[in-house]
């Protein structure tokens, strides 16, 4: 079983956040993560593709 779309996050303990960031920076990071995940879902892929969060 493969994963056609991969959006890397901070890691297993904090998949949708980063406790090392201040609240405003973490909110901005979560926003970028969500936007990238939505882009990944809307993109047609034919093989496993990694969508990096910038």
Order of strands across the widest beta sheet?
1-2
What's the β-strand tally? 2
**Protein structure class:** mainly alpha
Share of residues in helices: 25-40%
Question: How would you summarize what this structure contains?
Answer:
The protein has about 55 residues and is mainly alpha-helical. It has one helix at about 25-40, and strands at about 5, 50.
Chain-wise SSE layout:
Layout lengths: L4 E2 L16 H20 L6 E2 L4
Parallel strand pairs: 1-2
Structure description:
With 54 residues, this protein is mainly alpha-helical. 37% of the residues lie in helices and 7% in strands. It has a domain at 20-44. Strands 1-2 form a two-stranded parallel sheet. The chain is elongated. 0% of the residues are buried. The mean pLDDT is 87.
Based on the model shown, name its key terms.
54 residues, mainly alpha, two-stranded parallel ribbon
């Amino acid at each position: 079983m493969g994963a056609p779309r991969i959006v890397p996050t901070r890691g297993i303990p904090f998949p949708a956040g980063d406790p090392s960031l201040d609240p405003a920076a973490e909110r901005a990071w979560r926003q970028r993560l969500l936007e990238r995940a939505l882009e990944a879902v809307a993109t047609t892929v034919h093989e496993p593709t990694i969508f990096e969060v910038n």
